[in-house]
Amino acid sequence: MGQIFPRNANLLARLSIFAAVLLIVELTLILTVYFRSNYYRQINVAIQQPVPYSHQLHAGTLGIDCRYCHVSVDKSYFANIPATETCMTCHSQIRTGSTKLTVVRDSYATGQPVSWQKVNRVPSFVYFNHSIHINKGVGCSECHGKVTEMPVVWQPQAFFMGFCLNCHRNPENFLRPRDQVFNLNYIHPANQVELGQKLVQEYGVMPKTQLQNCWVCHR
Amino acid sequence: MAQAQPVRTTPQPDPGEAYLLPGETYTSISHTIGDVPLVALNKTPKGWFVGFTVSFILLMVFLVSVTWLFMKGVGIWGINIPVGWGMDIINFVWWIGIGHAGTLISAILLLLNQGWRNSINRFAEAMTLFAVACAGQYPILHLGRPWLFYWLFPYPNTLGMWPNFRSPLDWDVFAISTYASVSLVFWLVGLIPDFATLRDRSEHPLVKRIYGFVALGWRGSARHWHRYEMASLLLAGLSTPLVVSVHSIISLDFAVSQVPGWQVTVFPPYFVAGAVFAGFAMVLLLMIPVRHFYGFQSYITVRHLDVMAKVMLATGMIVVYGYFMEVWSSLYSGNIYEEYLLYNRLNGPSAIAYYGLLFCNAIAIQPLWFKRVRQNVPALMVISVIISIGMWLERYVIIVISLERDFLPSSWEKYMPTVWDWSLYLGTVGLFFTLIFVFIRVLPMINIFEMRMFQYQETVRLHLKAHPEHEESGHESLTSHSHGASAD
Questions:
Q1: What's the DSSP call for residue A44?
Q2: How many helices (H) and strands (E) does chain B have?
Q3: B161: which chain A residues are within 8 Å (Cβ-Cβ)?
Q4: Is the complex ipTM more than 0.90?
Q5: Are A126 and A87 part of one and the same domain?
């Protein structure tokens, strides 16, 4: 009976073992890297807005407080996007003829809100409450970065669950005094852990064991 | 290969005692078993087409049920609070239990050197794999978001968390995936010499190439056999603990909790015995028709059925002991909830399931004490069906009756499976039988080379019985010829 496979079939068979192992290793590696990549998560990508609004100018150079526009950030779970009326508190007087503000003026005239684009997203199954974080001494910049230096806002880091847990496991590493929460240039002092532990006590932050419970974020 | 015909024997064994009926030669074994997968498509028995079609239709029922489930979520099932585990988990435990007989036959009986396992191990192992495939559907499908099932594995994730290693539900993942992979490898390794036989016997060039590809260049050399023997021994050693561990861990899904009727210390051994019990019933349920339709009466003899019935009886009695221990635990606990559970089983809304289970698993197996029943094929078939139903009822009793009436009477709720619960169950039956029919068609359902070896051993054994004076030379040849030809 003749051979049905050529001689080099043996070599191919042996090589296929290595190829299979390599494929599994590589696939794991590629997937791991891809799903963590800034590309996949659209990190550091400026989101275009209907109005060329610059945080760098308003919050940075002019020094307007975050809460002037995002009024509800320390009172509600949701940090609101300002209504057109908020813009018009100044712009009814300042730069009333600027073409960059046409969309805002139109919106004010028609009552149709400006369609601002969402930049920072958490999945729908995560319950994130802004006010509790603000009131317990978590600075804006911990998650949002230095918005005062962003002409058009981008999300500076991925909100992986690991990112949230990093702080929920050790809040003392990240807390700052309440009067520094809106200071985007705040630098953690050398004795951060010591200070943090004091703030945890003072602000009545939940014990770590509870802070890591599933129900804290997933309800 | 021109192997000398084995010594002719004068004494013929009693048909009720033999594991291999006389008159079989190496060639006849290779032909009867090997020809089933090799016949041309138009010569495939009509019965096969009928069976396959019915199974395939049921498989489509599975497809529809799963699609609807993915669209609508688990709300289409009859589960509620407090009965969060319904037919999904009942069927999961039922299927995975069935698989255990295959592993017991292939691993433990190999290590115990039970020659009679040779005629049933291939089929039983295939049954194991297919049952595990069916079982594996349920834990994934019963997740709220089944597409995230991989969260159960400790893979490098972005969650900053491991799976909960303290949960038996996660132990399940490891137990079942290990079980499935070891069983698959064991089964495939055992198939290699037979693939070679099929390669050598097939005539169609494409078929020859396909079998040749999976035969991995098997030539039947002494070195090949040596390595094969070593590999199958090692795999048998690996599989042996799995016979016990998998269902023990599944029993811990219940036993680790605090639900009345679940936290009983006898659960692990009781579950393992129940698994082997149900598994042997399923082996008989499948083997009896196959042996009848394909004329394998001389390989799977009445004696085989007899022995399997004995295993069923033994494990069944362990299960009955488990039922006694459950009752004992309830009464002895001094705990109002445990005591109420017993009352609820006997008098509650689902009491009929408990009585049904006692009838099927405790009473219906008692005729197996008699050899006349054990060697009566229709009787075995009926008892096997009853046992399969009984073991399904056992899981129903454990899961549903305990959950329907837990600690707070205000939260009591009756469980009623919906049409989608049943269709998914029917669907997995379809998956199982579709795989079985494909297996019957394309692979040798009895281990050809082990049957050849067994034929040799039996011939020598019978010869030595008749001529004790040949004892010494006989032993020698028995060991040196432990395998027959690779092909005829």
A1: T
A2: 18, 0
A3: 161-162, 165
A4: no
A5: no
